[in-house]
Write a structure and sequence with these properties.
3-stranded parallel β-sheet, 4 helices, single chain, 95 residues, alpha/beta
């Protein structure tokens, strides 16, 4: 999907392993317990801000995508921060 976004002129932030993902220890995994989207929202916005500041992306064309929890956060951000993120996409996990 991100390839289609880039070809269409939209920059995609492919969120990999945000706070709350598994595989990085119990403390990292539980960092979002009972507060999905609240404690880690700034993590994503900081990444977007850095890409904009470095001139990598046009602020009006940022889409956050990801699998599993990162995909959830992409959708969360597009709804909660529409001025900062132009869209979000939750992609299916492959196992």
């Amino acid at each position: 999907m991100k390839d289609e976004l880039v070809v269409g002129g939209t920059a995609g932030l492919d969120a990999m392993f945000p706070r709350g993902s598994d595989g990085y220890g119990e403390e990292f995994f539980n960092a979002v317990s009972k507060q999905w989207g609240a404690s880690d929202e700034q993590d994503f916005l900081s990444a977007v801000d850095a890409l904009i500041a470095d001139g990598v992306v046009d602020a009006s064309k940022v889409v956050v995508t990801g699998y599993s929890y990162a995909g959830y956060m992409g959708c969360w951000l597009s709804a909660r921060q529409p001025g900062a993120v132009g869209g979000g996409c939750a992609r299916r996990c492959r196992r």
